[in-house]
Structure prediction request, 232 residues.
Amino acid sequence: MITHFTRRQILASAGAATFLTPLVEATEPPTSEPFPRDGTEALSRLKAGNARFAEGKTRHAHEGADWRKQLVADQKPFAIVLGCSDSRVPTELVFDQGFGDLFVIRVAGNVIDTDVVGSIQYAVRHLKTQLLVVMGHEGCGAVTATLAAIDGTAKEPRFVEALAKRIEPGLKGLDRQLVGTARLSAAVEANVRWAEKQLASFPEGKKALEDKAVMLVGAVYELNTGRVRFLV
Ligand SMILES: [Zn+2]
Prediction:
């Protein structure tokens, strides 16, 4: 390191202006990652970002003013993430991604409805985003409310009830022996798979998957560890 620094000093003293550039502290942390060429590479990037987050080694790239200026004219997010509105699961943060990286749709219980599908379709069609992740999370309130509705133990306001109705069909196959946290965890995963199943069942979704225009992956975020477990 000392040798390197000395060399830099020599270059600086020689007035080598072009070599001076790296000496200026960058406002934007460097990213060595090239733009993902396909869904598989996009998934690797998400996994790497989540590993950094879980290990407390976030780099907060793509947040600076210079980077944001590059995005004014256009966006090219490398992944679409359908996640829950839960305040404990901020999508960009858990994947250590910045502005322009992710096309995010958040709705309680990561449920599927026409507006959600329309948002996804927009990103696949117009932005050519090649990875779609449906991400549920541990301790999901919307899934908890749905389980309570199934059990008949709680009465929710009508719009929350309507939301639970979207989740309910996905929980039909749940193991009846499960209770408490184990039951909720199984329900969260089942809800993610239910969303995936619905997305794959639309003619447009089916075709996009067959044509490999987009790759669909389910995931569950763990509140304690900060890790995203991909369901593959
Ligand atoms: Zn939730």
Observations:
- Confidence is low (pLDDT under 50) at residues 1-26.
- The chain has two domains: 1-30, 32-231.
- The pocket of zinc ion is lined by residues 84, 86, 108-109, 137, 140-142 (CB under 6 Å).
